User: Which sequence fits this backbone?
C-alpha cells in the first residue's frame, strides 16, 4: 500500500518535471528541471530495491551527462531564438507524431514482456537462485552470465563512439 | 521505536553539528597554520589565541546585507549555494566513524547507515555538488564568475574520472562497495590499502585536492585573474554557504581517504596481539586522528605550492593521472586474478 502511494507520488513528480523541461522558455532552467527529474527517477529505482541502479542513475545522468548539457547551453548563448526556426506548427506536429510512436512502442513492449518475461530472468527466478547476495553483486552476476553478449555489444558501441569522437575532434593527429 | 527512529535521528543531529563546528574551526586552523608557515601569528584578538574567531566570523556573515544583483537570475542565484551545501552534508550518512560502542545498555554503531552501495553513493552525491558552482557562475550574470565556473566545471569533470577509477581498484581489493565492509576487508587482509595501492592513494589525494578546488588547483578562485571566482557576486550568508561547502568537502575527502586507504577506525596493527595497546585509544579517535592528518596536509600543501596554470592542470589530469589510474586498475585486476 505504502509502496503504491509512493510510486504514484514519484510518478506524478517525474511527469510534472518532465513537462516543465519541455515548456520552460529559459534553457538553463529547463536543464535544471531535467536534473530534478533524473533524481526522482533514481528515487523510483530505490523504491524498486535497485540501489545500485539508483546510484548509477545519479552518477551518470544527473551528475555527468547533464553537466555537459549545461556546459553546452552556457557556451552557445541561447537567449535569442535560432534563425532557422521557421514553422513552429509543422514541427510540433512532427514532435507529437514521434512521441506518440515512442509511447505506442513502450506500451507494446510493456504488455508483451508481462506475458513473456525475459528468459534469463525467468531461469534465474527469484534472487534465491543466484549464488550471490546484495544488489550490486546480483547485477554483476547477471551481466556476466545471462546477459554477457548484450553487455559486450554495448561496450563495443561505446568504444566505437569514443573512437569516432576522437577522430572527428582530432583531424590532424 | 527507539532503535529505528530516535537513535538514527540523534546520530544525524550530532554528525551535522559536529561537522559544522568542525568546518568553522577548520577555517581557524587554516589561518593559523598558514600564518605559522609565513612567520606570522594569525588571528589573536578574539578570545585567547583567537579561538573565538570562527564564532565572530559566523555572526558577522549572518548579519551582513544579502545582496542579489539586479540582472541576476534570481531563482538560480538563490538555489546555487543550497545545491553546493546539501551534497557536502548528506555524504556523511555513510561515513563510518567507528565500530560499535556500548552505551546505556545498547549497542550503538558509529555510523548513520551502512548501505550496500556506500562508496557509489558518495561518488554520485559528490557529482551533483558540481551544479552549485556552475549555476552560481551562470546566475550571477557577470563575466568573472562565469569564467570561473566554466573552469571549475571542466576541472571537476576531468578529475572525477581519475578519482573514480582509483576507487574501482580499491573496490576490487575489498570486494564490496560498503564503507564498513571496506574497513573490515582491511582488517581481514592484515594490511591498510594505502600500502597495497600506493598509486591509487596518491592519485586519490591529488584528485581530492582538485575536486575541492584547493591549492595548487584553486584556479576557479584565482584572485589575480578572476577577482573572487565563482562567488564574486555573493555576500553574507550565501557566500558563507559556499565557503562552508568547500571545507565540508575537504572533511569528506579526508574521511573517505582515511576509510579507503588508512584503515578507517582500525588502530595500527589491529591483529598483532603484543601491539594491542594501541586499542586503548577508541576507534573513533583513531578515525579523527587520521582524518586530521589529511586536513593538515591540505593546508600544508596550500602554504607550500604555487598555483597551476590552466593548461598544466588539464594536462596533469588527462595525460598523467587518468592513464596512471587505468594502468593501476589493469595491474590490480591481473594481480587479483593471479592470487585467486
Assistant:
Amino acid at each position: 500500500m505504502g509502496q503504491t502511494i509512493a510510486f504514484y507520488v514519484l510518478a506524478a513528480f517525474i511527469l510534472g518535471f518532465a513537462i516543465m523541461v519541455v515548456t520552460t522558455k529559459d534553457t538553463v532552467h529547463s536543464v535544471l528541471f531535467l536534473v530534478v527529474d533524473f533524481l526522482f527517477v533514481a528515487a523510483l529505482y530505490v523504491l524498486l530495491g535497485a540501489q545500485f541502479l539508483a546510484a548509477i542513475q545519479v552518477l551518470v545522468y544527473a551528475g555527468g551527462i547533464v553537466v555537459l548539457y549545461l556546459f553546452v547551453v552556457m557556451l552557445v548563448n541561447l537567449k535569442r531564438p535560432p534563425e532557422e526556426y521557421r514553422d513552429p506548427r509543422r514541427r510540433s506536429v512532427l514532435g507529437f507524431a514521434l512521441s506518440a510512436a515512442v509511447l505506442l512502442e513502450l506500451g507494446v513492449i510493456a504488455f508483451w514482456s508481462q506475458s513473456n518475461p525475459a528468459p534469463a530472468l525467468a531461469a534465474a527466478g527469484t534472487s534465491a537462485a543466484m549464488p550471490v547476495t546484495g544488489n550490486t553483486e546480483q547485477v554483476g552476476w547477471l551481466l556476466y552470465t545471462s546477459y554477457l553478449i548484450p553487455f559486450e555489444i554495448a561496450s563495443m558501441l561505446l568504444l566505437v563512439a569514443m573512437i569516432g569522437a576522437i577522430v572527428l575532434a582530432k583531424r590532424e593527429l | 521505536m527507539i532503535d529505528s527512529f530516535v537513535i538514527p535521528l540523534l546520530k544525524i543531529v550530532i554528525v551535522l553539528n559536529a561537522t559544522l563546528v568542525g568546518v568553522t574551526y577548520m577555517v581557524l586552523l587554516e589561518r593559523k597554520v598558514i600564518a605559522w608557515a609565513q612567520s606570522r601569528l594569525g588571528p589573536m584578538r578574539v578570545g585567547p589565541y583567537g579561538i573565538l574567531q570562527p564564532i565572530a566570523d559566523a555572526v558577522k556573515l549572518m548579519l551582513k546585507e544579502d545582496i542579489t544583483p539586479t540582472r541576476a537570475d534570481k531563482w538560480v542565484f538563490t538555489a546555487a549555494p543550497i545545491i553546493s551545501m546539501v551534497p557536502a552534508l548528506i555524504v556523511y550518512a555513510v561515513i563510518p566513524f567507528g565500530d560499535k560502542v556500548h552505551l546505556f545498555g545498547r549497542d550503538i554503531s558509529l555510523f548513520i547507515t551502512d548501505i550496500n552501495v556506500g562508496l557509489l553513493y558518495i561518488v554520485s552525491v559528490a557529482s551533483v555538488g558540481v551544479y552549485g558552482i556552475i549555476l552560481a557562475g551562470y546566475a550571477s550574470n557577470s563575466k568573472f564568475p562565469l569564467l570561473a565556473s566554466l573552469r571549475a566545471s571542466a576541472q571537476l569533470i576531468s578529475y572525477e574520472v581519475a578519482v573514480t577509477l582509483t576507487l574501482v581498484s580499491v573496490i576490487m581489493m575489498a570486494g564490496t562497495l560498503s564503507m564498513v565492509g571496506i574497513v573490515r576487508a582491511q582488517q581481514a587482509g592484515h594490511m591498510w590499502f594505502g600500502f597495497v595501492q600506493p598509486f591509487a592513494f596518491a592519485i586519490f589525494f591529488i584528485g581530492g585536492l582538485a575536486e575541492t578546488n584547493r591549492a595548487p588547483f584553486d584556479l576557479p578562485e584565482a584572485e589575480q585573474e578572476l577577482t573572487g571566482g565563482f562567488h564574486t557576486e555573493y555576500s553574507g550568508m550565501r557566500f558563507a554557504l559556499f565557503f562552508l561547502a568547500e571545507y565540508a568537502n575537504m572533511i569528506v575527502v579526508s574521511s573517505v581517504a582515511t576509510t579507503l586507504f588508512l584503515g578507517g577506525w582500525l588502530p595500527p596493527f589491529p591483529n598483532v596481539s603484543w601491539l594491542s595497546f594501541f586499542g586503548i585509544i577508541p576507534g573513533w579517535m583513531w578515525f579523527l586522528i587520521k582524518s586530521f592528518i589529511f586536513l593538515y596536509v591540505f593546508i600544508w600543501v596550500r602554504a607550500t605550492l604555487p598555483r597551476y596554470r590552466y593548461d598544466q592542470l588539464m594536462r596533469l589530469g588527462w595525460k598523467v593521472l587518468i592513464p596512471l589510474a587505468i594502468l593501476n586498475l589493469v595491474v590490480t585486476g591481473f594481480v587479483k586474478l593471479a592470487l585467486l
